[in-house]
## 1
Amino acid sequence: MKEESKITLHPLKSLMIVLIGTEKVITLTVDENDLVMNADGEIDCPMETTLRKNKITAETMNKWGIESVRLVEMTSEKEKVLYDFEPEVVLDLLQL
């Protein structure tokens, strides 16, 4: 069995999940322990893990009127949207 190596970001970078709703924007920091390498060799994270750690449920997302969910890479100078998800996709993940 292949041993998995720990994935780390550059010290000046962080990954955030940004929930954009009709009346509020919620930003969650992704723990480095939750990072994985996807099939394309890019750093990714299981979004549902971060949402559950922050006690965000499908019911909460519906109540907040979430219209978009983004995975964003943040540096001191800029933010880069890595993925932009429809809320239905994320709601399905939370139902599993």
## 2
Amino acid sequence: MLISHISDLHLGYAQFNLQEREEDLYEVFGEAIEKSINEHVKAIILAGDIFHNPKPTGAAIIRLARELKKLKEKSIPVFFVLGEHDISRSSDVPLPYLFHNLGLAKRLKPDSPVQIDNLLIYGFNKERRSNIDNGLIRPFRKIESILENDTQKQTAQNHWLKKILVLHQGLYDFNKFAGEIFSNDLPIGFDYYAMGHYHDHIEKRFTTLNEGLVAYPGSIDLGHNEAISDVEKGFLLVDLSEASANVNTHWIKLEKRRHQFEYQIEYPDLDDKLRYIVQESAQYAKKPIIDLKIRGADIDPKILSRQLLQLETSFLYYNWNILGEDSTTGGFSYDNTREFDMDKEMSSLILKSLHSEPLTHLSLDLINMFHNDGDSNDNKNIDKDKNNQIANYLWKFFENNKSNYQTLDNSKIDGKDDSN
């Protein structure tokens, strides 16, 4: 049995606020669906961040509906969980649930798996760090116990079911700054852990999970927090054949993506390099995107800007930075449209100030809570004009959630645990 594992679609996102980039996302998502159909998959899993915004544009809704309808006509079921981009901070019903109610896709739940032939699929929506224990860890242990009992029954009956767990969470094992749980937090008993959240393609088997395969297919295109680069994107075909004890995967590259490149150029070589770059761009069906880092001394930005105008006809978008002669990273950017990632910058500043990852997570959760006007449950008792009331509320919040901020195992975060 083959299934498709696709994640981090971010439909509706327009990189650099360009309509062409929004359309690019719809095209590569369509390519992933078309390739899945051609591979005769039995089902498709969407592992979260289906939309880029919890209140997506009409275009994003229509384009998703079009692809789901196509799969419905081919009798290929679609199963999904929600990522943080799909979940509104208010009490609104998440938009993807509309497609569940229309019968075009089915939401996954942790307590009632769906079954396709000899395959069971469980799923959890995204959980914030402040609710990891209640929302994930405790339910994980419950599922683990259920699966252990089921396995004993199946062994006695000589009838084996393969099992998939779908999550949209980051693992500290792969990224110590963006993680939320560890691999050994995951429930044992699953053959395949269909992950979303990380935009890079990652696969690893863990001995603590009885060699269960944990896999992130990566995003289908460059996201809002990714720099311009010549990186490949795609999705996973997952082979759950009964003949094989292990789950096998094949990563499928998406060919219709708009190419993005970065070049570092010595200023004296600029004219020759620009001619070469323009010639190279002609081979692509879509105008590429380019990021230039110009190295040199005494460069006049106004003159350089005029020299780079020749790129406008060959590239959809270009960005440039001047690097000093002694500089190896960074530089001065003259790109006024480059996005500023507030969450990333805030995290970096707080970490530098507090020198503590748990306290940084706590600070970010509190900041998000105070800026969340739609969450009446968190804010209904706060009088923001009274310092004592705020202080008492903060202390109560910390006391109720301190286990989430004090139980990070630094040895595992630093990669000292080599058991896997």
## 3
Amino acid sequence: MGFGYLCVLLVCILLSEGLSKGVFGLACNWGSRSTHQLPPDIVVRLLKANGFNKVKLFEAEAGPLKALGNSGMQVMVGIPNDLLAPLASSVQVAENWVAQNVSSYISKNGVDIRYVAVGNEPFLRTYKDTFIHTTFPALQNVQAALIKAGLGRQVKVTIPINADVYDTGSGLPSGGNFRSDIHDLMISIVKFLSNNGAPITINIYPFLSLQADPHFPKDYAFFNGNSKPIVDGSITYTNVLDANFDTLVSALEKNGFSNMPIIVGEVGWPTDGDPNANIVNARRFNQGLLERIISGKGTPRRPTPPDIYLFALLDEDAKSTDPGNFERHWGIFNFDGSIKYPLNLGSGRGLTPAKGVKYLARQWCIMSPQASTADPKLAESISYACTYADCTSLGYGSSCGMLDPRGNASYAFNMYYQTMDQRKGSCEFNNLSIVTTVDPSPSPNTQGSCRFEIMIDLGKHEKRSSAPSMAASRFGRYNSNIVVVGFLVPLLLSMWVV
């Protein structure tokens, strides 16, 4: 009796420790399209402190991979789409890639790499046929390279695909099948993955369903909504994630792959850059998602829960905004690892912020009180600032969309000033700006805070080129932000008091 009691006590202790250490943990995406990245060792500590034990990288970057060495984290390493063509052209190219980006990190750094994600949503309709002929050959060559390296059992290949690779003629999940134009290709890929014991990875975005269709029932995007359910035979669907996932399950079943393992590679909700992208909605969605993950809930057609990688860990201010300004705001944490909004991680645990982050001085660049919004040089100054820095929070319905004309200018000036590491000359906008030590951020509102950022101190000021002058070429490191200007400047101009 005493021995049995000790065994039960030991099991309870092990379970308790397992939960606290995230053994049953969470998975997320760690992107690097940021002008001021957190040091990788701080990110790994952030992941572990919050119960994440699986992480997906979009490419094989040395810093994150080395930091993940001997961390206990399971890693999925991505291959960008622009590498698909060379990998498809030669097995030797694939062998070199695997040797450099997989084998070496496993053997030398102790990185627990479990998957190689070949491409990222390569069959998006918007890509036309760009990657149609290179994705599958690249997948085959990478698989062959892993086998040759002796990693065929340890590391599995997969392809993260977008939900637009399948559809349903009936409008119900049970009618799911692969898109007619790529049906045969998808079957070949799925068969190849199945033969090699590898999963298929799907990215599902209820936010995009809501954002793209003004008539989409909003509550259906969430897990606790009251929208009219979809009845599919004996199954009732109350949210779009279940319905979308099961549409893929139906497509697999129809084509003879009922037991194909599925990973949800990306799912989340942004907090800025669109009227539907705010802290209230993001918290509602991600809390519901976490509760499903923690409780081990699957979908009606797949009761066993899949691995689900939250998108994303951190905001990325240098991502392309082609899909929308919200692209830079998917993180459950801000770019610096600070907490955006509370989340319950189970057992009463909340989010833990990043530790050991160092910042630039507490000073901001704002529009001078003596400057006038009627100054003819103001439009050029704001346009310039938003060409080189992230101004997506100024858009309609965004966190800083309520600012007056002077506030708009100050926000743009400060983002440029911080992006350029507060360097001398980076707060000089035609005599329209000054540096202040008083935080200009407005008071928080119900949707969240409009933050006038202070960037991370990268400790490399002397190694970076000086801030470009107003007369300098605008095609430089922060060129990816140019797409924002066409949207924001007319908006700002319309708000100015002339």
